[in-house]
Amino acid sequence: MPSSPDLYAFVRGELVPLTHAYLHVSDLAIQRGYGVFDYFRIHETQPLFVEDHLDRFYESARLMQLDVPMSREALRETVLELAQRNNLELSGIKLLLTGGYSTDGYTPVPEQASLVMIQQPLTMVEQSVVDRGIRIMSHEYVREVARAKTINYTMGIRLLQRLRELGLDDVLYHQQGVVSEFPRSNFFIVRQDNTVVTPAQDMLFGITRKKVLQLASQQYPVEEGVVTLHDVWQAKEAFLTNTTKRLLPVVELDGQPIGTGKPGEVTLSLLAAFQELEQAALAKASVV
Amino acid sequence: MPSSPDLYAFVRGELVPLTHAYLHVSDLAIQRGYGVFDYFRIHETQPLFVEDHLDRFYESARLMQLDVPMSREALRETVLELAQRNNLELSGIKLLLTGGYSTDGYTPVPEQASLVMIQQPLTMVEQSVVDRGIRIMSHEYVREVARAKTINYTMGIRLLQRLRELGLDDVLYHQQGVVSEFPRSNFFIVRQDNTVVTPAQDMLFGITRKKVLQLASQQYPVEEGVVTLHDVWQAKEAFLTNTTKRLLPVVELDGQPIGTGKPGEVTLSLLAAFQELEQAALAKASVV
Asked: Within a domain: residue A66?
């Protein structure tokens, strides 16, 4: 993160310059990859859907038996303080909670948990990527403790090289043909009858996923359930959702086109509806 | 690690006081739990079985597509320099290689990999623990990329609380009843006919495991293959192996005794043979 020398971060109780944001090597993130996080957008100084993200952050911590060493109110205040200090036009804040400094390098010491907040400028996906959609491959894998947003990205990062070699954009996890999620995104298909379907097992409950389900249910039949690789190839459309990409059309899986092989109408109408929802949420927040 | 203020560590190219051994929060260990490590004992300034550990460290790095940013010779030299600087009676050195400082918090930048070495005093298992053996439970789980010694201990650390509640010493991983390993140790059984058997799938190739297999084959039939939970309860003896515990008798699994429920003869004879091997290896090294 060398490009932003003037940014501040929050590390174990203190606002410090990001260039001085360090953790001791005894931290259980470094020793044992043990931690959880969450990530949300900041428009100027306004966080987007922050209550949803705080809900999930506390839930991830609970699932990993970690205590957030700060009340929800204090956490929200610190986020706002950091956002005001950094004052970026468009950015993301990452909340990170690790097992913390450990004397034996294995056992978490509750009062030594490391709470970190990092804010970085963010560039949203370019329109040309939305226009053309992305091409993906499948890979058999289920994330450990999939309901928690842990820092474990062993498989996702290991697969980067294969994606580069194949010239593909992302990898969709499945188990015995039943699809779950991408390393950092949720997955949806639109069936031929316009039913919007998303997996409900072995995946993280994405915030964008939740909003899209709400929006879709106003216009289309909606299902949370089993999606197989076969279902994907039979679908009319497919797309992914996450905080930085909103909705992104998926037009090819394992070399076979999905639907017409082009971004679909339902996907694009939901993307437009999501952008309206975003604007409404930000306008509402700015009034308060 | 607050108890050893005078110790030195090696962090990204420099020997520094352990109290100043920090990594920037952009490191992929902190961001994404991405890294590998190895760990070996140091007797005064002599590393034990260091070539085996270096072999495995480079193999773990390769499996995780990381490059060790130092030749094997330079790495060995740095280990010896650190051991001489710290000059502890009995200790362990941890070699750690992470995905390193990343500009986007996800993609490894090869020239930014973080190589870290930490040395800490070590206390071996007390004789009373060997005399009474340990009690364990089973848990269905397979480590990701089990052949690599990654820093991902999500499951092992998450299970610590249950072990504490049940008053047990460790957890043995299995998949559909086929046993693999402990979070930090290998597993052996001794059948009624004195055959020494250890799992060969979904586990890390432990250095102590390798030495014990060599020693056992001089006295007993030896097998690397499938071990089921049922086999464990039918066994005459069971034990675990790792670098800090050598061989430790396992006398109970999921509330049922193994064999007589006491440490067995074959286990204790192999432990004695292993201690002799250790002494010989250290004596040989001190002559060089």
From this structure: yes
Q: What CA–CA distance (Å, rounded) separates B101 from B37?
A: 17
A87 shares its domain with A199: no
Residue B235 to residues A66, A247, B131, B259: CA-CA distances in angstroms? 38, 56, 19, 6
Strands B246-253, B134-140: pairing is parallel
Do B56 and B83 share a domain, yes or no? yes
CA distance A70 to A84: 20
Helix, strand or coil for residue B68?
coil
Residues in chain A closer than 8 A to B67 (CB atoms): none
Based on the fold, state whether residues B141 and B275 are members of the same structural domain: yes
Using CB atoms, which residue from B25, B98, B156 is nearest to A21? B25
CATH code of the domain containing B226: 3.20.10.10
Residues A33 and A86 in one domain: yes
Instruction: Please judge whether A33 and B34 are an interchain contact, meaning their C-beta atoms are less than 8 angstroms apart.
Output: yes
A185 located within any domain: yes
**Contact residues, chain A, for B154 at CB < 8 Å:** 33-34, 64, 144-145, 150, 152
Is A269 found in the same domain as A152? yes
Same domain, B114 and B134: no
Digits of tens for pLDDT over chain A (288 positions)? 444 559 999 999 999 999 999 999 999 999 999 999 999 999 999 999 999 999 999 999 999 999 999 999 999 999 999 999 999 999 999 999 999 999 999 999 989 999 999 999 999 999 999 999 999 999 999 999 999 999 999 999 999 999 999 999 999 999 999 999 999 999 999 999 999 999 999 999 999 999 999 999 999 999 999 999 999 999 999 999 999 999 999 999 999 999 999 999 999 999 999 999 999 999 987 765
Which A residues in the span 12-31 are in contact with B, Cβ-Cβ below 8 Å?
A: 18, 21-31
Residue B215, SS3? helix
Domain end among B121, B154, B175: B121
Of the residues A8, A11, A30, the best mutation for testing chain B's interface (the one with the most B CB atoms within 10 Å of its CB) is A30
**Best mutation target, B11, B15, B25, to test chain A (most A CBs within 10 A):** B25
CA distance A270 to A285: 22
d(CA A17, CA B221): 62
Could A29 and B30 be called an inter-chain contact, meaning their C-beta atoms sit closer than 8 Å?
A: yes
Mark yes or no for CB contact A157/B28 under 8 Å: yes
| Boundary of a domain, candidates B79, B103, B121 | B121
Is some CB atom of chain B closer than 8 A to the CB atom of A103?
A: yes
Under an 8 A CB cutoff, do A65 and B161 touch?
Answer: yes
Domain count, chain A: 2
Q: What is the residue range of B197's domain?
A: 127-279
Whether A22 and A112 map to the same domain: the answer is yes
Backbone angles phi, psi at B4, to 5 degrees: -125, 70
> Using the beta-carbon criterion (under 8 Å), do A33 and B118 form an inter-chain contact?
no
- The span from the CA of A92 to the CA of A122, in Å, is 6
CB contact A283 to B (< 8 Å): no
A141 with A111, same domain?
no
Q: Flag whether A285 is in a domain.
A: no
